[in-house]
Design brief:
With 202 residues, the protein is of the alpha+beta class. It is 54% helix and 13% strand. The protein has helices at residues 45-64, 81-88, 94-123, 131-141, 147-161, 171-187, 192-200, and strands at residues 7-9, 16-18, 27-29, 36-39, 68-72, 75-79, 166-169. The strands form three sheets. The chain has a three-stranded antiparallel sheet. Strands 1-2 form a two-stranded antiparallel sheet. The protein starts with 6 loop residues before the first strand and ends with a helix.
Length: 202
């Protein structure tokens, strides 16, 4: 199989275009079907790697520090995300706990690891080993990372419980609030530069 790094293909109608240098932030659309072909990268590879490292740190903080401190009648209780999922798994909520663990902890952690693997090599000017398989895994996992959904659920729960209990927001929820938009930035970033680097090495 031959690679053609000077060409790009529309995923929807298979129209072929010459690859051109893209302006940062500019979107390019297919003249036949109107679907987006590519978007010029706003972040350099080094900046993308730096944001991913930041997301990795926030991911660790979000799963290490307590989400909230709950006080009632002199009794205090706090729990991390992992402890909350473990508590949910005790009883009939096990299937829900497994699903929550996958989409809240498993998938985001997997995406961050994949990006760190790819971008570490890209920063050195070369594609990572198993590049195509890594890109496929990243593409498949994109819809399943639900950090922002979890954040919304936690905030709703805190607002409702605050009417009955004294709740102090913990460092865990702050980390999740910072992590949620950052995950969108690093996982939805255009991968055109990575593919160009890979194809140029073939």
């Amino acid at each position: 199989m031959r690679a053609y790094p000077d060409l790009m293909l529309c995923e929807h109608c298979d129209e072929v275009y010459d690859r051109t240098l893209m302006a940062p932030g500019a979107s390019y659309y297919c003249s036949r079907c109107g679907s987006r072909l590519a978007k010029g990268s706003i972040l350099s590879t080094s900046a993308w790697l730096a944001w991913t490292l930041t997301a990795a740190c926030l991911f660790v903080f979000a799963n290490t520090f307590p989400v909230a401190l709950i006080s009632f009648d002199g009794l205090n209780s706090e729990a991390t995300v992992w402890q909350s999922i473990s508590a949910l798994a005790q009883g009939p909520g096990t299937p829900m706990a497994i699903a929550a663990g996958i989409v809240i902890i498993g998938i985001p952690g997997f995406q961050i690891a994949l990006l760190l693997w790819m971008l570490s090599f890209a920063a050195l000017g070369k594609p990572c080993p198993y590049f195509v398989a890594t890109m496929r895994c990243l593409h498949f996992s994109r819809p399943w990372g639900m950090t922002e959904v979890f954040l919304l659920g936690v905030l709703v729960a805190i607002v409702k419980l605050s009417s009955y209990l004294h709740i102090v927001v913990g460092a865990g929820i702050i980390s999740i609030a910072l992590l949620a938009p950052l995950m969108v930035v690093i996982t939805k970033h255009d991968t055109e530069d990575l593919w160009r680097l890979y194809e140029g090495r073939q």
